[in-house]
User: Fold Sigma-70 family RNA polymerase sigma factor from Candidatus Ventrousia excrementavium.
Amino acid sequence: MSESAIDEIYTYDWRCFCSQRTYENRTQPLPDLYISDEGQSVRSSLLKKFPALSTTFDEQDFPGQYAWIDTIEDPDLFRKINLLSNADLELLTLLVIHGYSEAEIARQRGCSRNTISKKFARIKRFLK
Assistant:
């Protein structure tokens, strides 16, 4: 192997190493969700540094299955979400509030993941 080929391999490896190191140093995993105040002492440093990223949500203040809609501050988004059907609102609630994946929602509904994915794509187009 020629000296120039070895130098190219070394340069490539060095760039990959530096890129991975930069990524690892500048990113961190999102924190787990904490339901109660017990998790305050074990919160991630990201939430400690930026307390605005953390919110509290008391379900008693928002009765009803779709009460989360009342917390939306963007008036255009709020108006469009209120125009959605109950079936679409149920899908959004399962995804956003309950944290189910598309595959889990499809299993619950007894349909394919592709069907759910298409419904979310349609909802997304409507909301844009």
Notes: Residues 107 and 113 are 8 Å apart (CA to CA).
